[in-house]
Design brief:
The chain has about 260 residues and is α+β, with helices and mostly antiparallel strands. It has helices at about 1-10, 15-30, 130-140, 175-180, 205-215, 235; strands spanning about 45-50, 75-80, 85, 90-95, 100, 115-120, 140-150, 185-195, 225-230.
Amino acid sequence: MQDDIRTAAKFYASRPGENTARLLRQRLRTFWPSTGPGSAPRAGERILGLGYTLPYLPLWARPGAASGAAPGAVMCLSARLDTAVTRDAATIAPIGVHDCMVAEDRLPFPELHFDRVLMVHALETAERPDELLRSAWKILKDDGRLLLVVPNRAGWWAHADDTPFGQGAPFSPRQIARRLSRAFLRAERHDGALYLPPMGAAHRALGNLAEAAGHALLPALGGVFVIEAVKDVYAGMPAAPAPALIRVPRRIYEPG
């Protein structure tokens, strides 16, 4: 995971990475507007980023500048404002946005703690993606929302090894739906993004044109899928035990 984070950091520091982040931020903003009614994050909401979300989390938060790593950690996360993770990834501090490394199946937060979770460059590189989604389910509030970005198996970007979208295993829509269902998450909205080929990412005007044309003409062939999911609370509840059967002794009458 640390190699994947280095790849992502190097990519986003380049001109193609900056333009790619700009295009993807535009799509994320349509799901969670910075302000306004609907699904816009409200003041005081707790937002957690899993994977490499530093280019995107500032849409809804003011980033800080802390980082660290816990022993044996494999997943990078960032948290907003009053729920920032400290350097030892064990407590929560009331300042800025911190980033650190944690185990993907043992997130250092209490259950029902976050209003929203953003996942970018996370699920495709996770060793146990189902456990990662279940961990996110646990720390989300009952009305919490998950915004997930994953590479499209049929897109250009899944095969670009020099970008973070070309790392790990890409997904098809059916695979994503199955994984979300197994984690008791229900997809409510989905869309595509990054329709330009990776080799053209450095060109701002070309990126804008490809994004508009691809979204209108070839919506299933974007480089990534963006999915908003909510907790399926009832599916996550343990089933009530079946009522015990009361055995009544039967009398056998023999003809006299």
